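Case study 2.
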Amino acid sequence: MNLIPANWALATTHLASDYVSEQFCSIVGGMPTVLPPPELNVVLLVACCNLAWRLANAYLNVVTINFDMSDIHWLVSLSLSDLLLYWTDSVSLFYGIF
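Prediction:
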C-alpha cells in the first residue's frame, strides 16, 4: 500500500472520510463516539460530525415513498412525438403561450 504524502489534500480527505465512516458506525451501533484525528481542523471536524449524524439519522429513520406505478407504465408507453407534444403543451401552459 502506498502512503499518501501528508501535505496533499487527498490525505486530508482520506482522514476525514475514515473519521465519518467510523463515527457513522459508532452512532448506528450505539457505541461511544470516536476520537477525531488531530490533523483535521475545527471547521472540517464540525462538518464531518454533522455529516456522520445526518447519515446516521437518515439510515435509522427510513422513509418509504409510495407512488403509482401506472404513471411510469404510461410514460414508458409514449412515443417520442407524444413526449415532445406533452412537453411543448406543458411549457406553453406554464409560460402562458397559447
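The mean pLDDT is 77.
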